Amino acid sequence: MSTTTGTWTREALAAAPQTYFDAVDAMDVDAVLSHFADDATLTVQTDHVTFSGAGEIRRMFTDFFDVSVTIRHELRNVVVEEAAGKVATEQGYIGELKDGSRNDMHNCNFFSFDESGKFTRVIIWMAGTNPLK
């Protein structure tokens, strides 16, 4: 898995997490998956679980959307390491699940990009119970 950015600019790298979170908040699984390389991994580090490849990542998001009433992310900080093709974000997540539980969490994500600007690896650190089962 390469992490070089090719022709990606600092601005494009910094913008990608926002468009990703916008797709998550809209519960649009196809738009979410359009951010990921086919062989990407998504790890919820604080829950010790990894989803590998587009199929597993799609299933995880489909399951998450199926149990969610509302999802909202608020980006608070974005750090870009342009030369390495990496971005770190700090964000709030506020959501309500169909079982009536509510989440108001402080999370951090770490994104690695390939040459085409797709995520090859996403690592999530969550403060609280993982709603991404």
Query: What ranges have pLDDT less than 50 throughout 5 or more consecutive residues?
Result: 1-5
User: Which CATH class applies here?
Assistant: Alpha Beta
Main sheet overview: 6 strands, mixed
Global structural class: alpha+beta
In sequence order, what are the helices and strands, one letter per element? HHEEHEEEE
Terminus-to-terminus distance:
25 Å
- By CATH, the architecture is named Roll
Write down how many β-strands occur, each being a DSSP E stretch of 2 or more residues: 6
Taken from the alpha-carbon principal axes, the silhouette is: globular
Q: Over the alpha carbons, how many angstroms does the gyration radius reach?
A: 14 Å
Describe this structure in words.
The protein has about 130 residues and is an alpha+beta fold. The protein has a single domain, classed as Nuclear Transport Factor 2, Chain: A. Helix content is about 25%, strand content about 45%. It contains three helices and six strands. A hairpin with a 5-residue loop joins strand 5 and strand 6 (about 120-125). The longest helix has 16 residues, at about 10-25. The relative contact order is 0.25.
Please write out the topology.
Layout: H1 10-25, H2 29-33, E1 36-44, E2 49-52, H3 53-66, E3 68-81, E4 86-97, E5 102-113, E6 119-126
Parallel strand pairs: 1-6
Antiparallel strand pairs: 1-2, 3-4, 4-5, 5-6
Quick gist of this model?
Helices cover 26% and strands 44% of the residues. The protein has helices spanning 10-25, 29-33, 53-66, and strands at residues 36-44, 49-52, 68-81, 86-97, 102-113, 119-126.
